[in-house]
Amino acid sequence: MELGLHGKRVLITGGSKGIGLACARAFLAEGAQVGITSRAQANLDRARESLGAGVIAASADLTDASAALAMIDWMES
Length: 77
Fold this sequence. Notes:
By secondary structure, the protein is an alpha/beta fold. The protein is built from 3 helices and 3 strands. The protein is globular, with a radius of gyration of 12 Å. The model has no long low-confidence stretch (mean pLDDT 88).
């Protein structure tokens, strides 16, 4: 399916497992640049390994507003 996402940037919170991980796979398949975040670095490491190239990952507690803003800045750079 072509959704016109090639080259678009997508940040998925909770992207290290479950629905978030499935979303990351789908966006990667559509050609998007995908960033995932989770509080647990170990979960991110496993997710990044399973997703392969094209995904970036960073741990953060997004209940902290400054951490959430940092994630946005991180994805824009």
